[in-house]
C-alpha cells in the first residue's frame, strides 16, 4: 500500500479511520451495567464506606448491578501468592465490572494504604486480558477537615495509568463526620446532590461505553507492535 502524503511514518494498512458505524455496540447488552466499588478504610465507622454504600444505592436506583469489595483481610501486595482468595475475588470482580467507583479518605494529603493496596493488586495484564482497561471510573474522597481534592486527583492519575475512562465529575466531602447520621446515611446537602450528579454521569457514560471498549482501546501503536512481532516470528522460522 502506498504511503500517506505528508505522513510517511504511518503504515496505511494499520491506520484505522474511525466512523460512527464502527462505534456501534458489539454484542447483546442484555444485562444491567456492572459497577464495582472500592473504598479505602477498615474503620468500623468508615465515612468512605458510608459514602460508597450511599453511592451504590443511587446506582441501583438507576438500574446498575453493584458489587462492593470488602478490603478487610486483603494482604499487602506482594506478601502472598496471587492465588490468595481475597486477591482472586478482587481480580474476578474487576473482570466482571464495566465501570468502577473508587472512594478513599485523605490521609497525610494522599490516598490511604488500604486504597492503594487494592489498586496495586489489580494487574495491567492477565495474559491477554487487561482487567481495568476500558472500564469507566468515578472517583470520590472524604475529608476530616476542610475540602480537598488531593485524593481525587491521585485517583485520577491511577485511573489513567490503569487505562480507565475517568468521568469528569467527582465527589469530595469535607468534614465528613457532619454529613452522615448515626446509621451511616448521608444527610441532605449540596454534597449529597453532587454525589447524585456523579453517579448519574457514571451510569450514563458506562451505558455509552458498553460494547464499544474493544474498539475504543484499539491502538495504532499496538497494532504496529503486533505486526512487527508477527514478522519476526516468520523470520525465525526461516
> How much strand content do the residues show?
5-15%
Which percent range fits the helix content?
Answer: 25-40%
The beta-strand count equals 6
Tell me about the largest β-sheet.
6 strands, parallel
First-last Cα distance: 25 Å
What does the overall shape look like?
Answer: globular
User: What is the H/E order?
Assistant: EHEHEHEHEEHHH
Rg calculated over all Cα atoms: 21 Å
Overall pLDDT: 93
List low-confidence stretches. none
Q: Please report the number of helical segments.
A: 7
Structural class category: alpha/beta
Quaternary class: single chain
List keywords for this structure.
six-stranded parallel sheet, alpha/beta, 238 residues, globular, 6 strands
Task: Describe what is shown at a glance.
The protein has 238 residues and is of the alpha/beta class. It is 38% helix and 12% strand.
Amino acid at each position: 500500500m502506498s504511503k500517506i502524503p505528508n505522513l510517511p511514518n504511518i503504515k496505511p494498512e494499520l491506520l484505522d479511520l474511525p466512523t460512527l458505524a464502527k462505534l456501534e455496540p458489539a454484542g447483546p447488552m442484555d444485562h444491567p451495567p456492572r459497577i464495582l466499588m472500592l473504598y479505602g478504610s477498615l474503620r468500623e465507622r468508615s465515612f468512605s464506606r458510608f459514602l460508597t454504600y450511599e453511592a451504590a444505592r443511587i446506582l441501583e436506583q438507576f438500574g446498575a448491578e453493584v458489587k462492593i469489595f470488602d478490603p478487610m483481610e486483603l494482604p499487602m501486595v506482594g506478601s502472598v501468592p496471587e492465588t490468595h482468595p481475597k486477591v482472586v475475588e478482587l481480580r474476578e470482580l474487576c473482570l466482571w465490572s464495566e465501570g468502577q467507583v473508587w472512594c478513599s479518605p485523605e490521609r497525610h494529603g494522599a490516598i490511604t494504604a488500604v486504597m492503594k493496596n487494592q489498586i496495586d493488586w489489580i494487574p495491567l495484564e492477565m495474559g491477554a486480558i487487561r482487567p481495568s482497561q476500558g472500564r469507566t471510573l468515578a472517583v470520590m474522597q472524604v475529608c476530616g477537615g476542610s475540602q480537598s481534592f488531593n485524593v481525587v486527583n491521585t485517583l485520577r492519575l491511577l485511573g489513567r495509568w490503569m487505562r480507565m475512562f475517568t468521568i469528569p465529575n467527582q465527589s469530595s466531602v469535607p468534614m465528613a463526620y457532619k454529613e452522615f447520621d448515626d446509621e451511616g446515611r448521608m444527610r441532605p446537602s449540596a454534597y449529597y446532590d453532587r454525589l447524585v450528579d456523579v453517579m448519574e454521569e457514571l451510569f450514563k457514560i458506562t451505558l455509552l461505553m458498553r460494547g464499544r471498549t474493544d474498539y475504543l482501546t484499539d491502538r495504532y501503536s499496538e497494532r504496529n507492535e503486533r505486526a512487527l512481532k508477527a514478522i519476526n516470528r516468520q523470520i525465525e522460522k526461516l
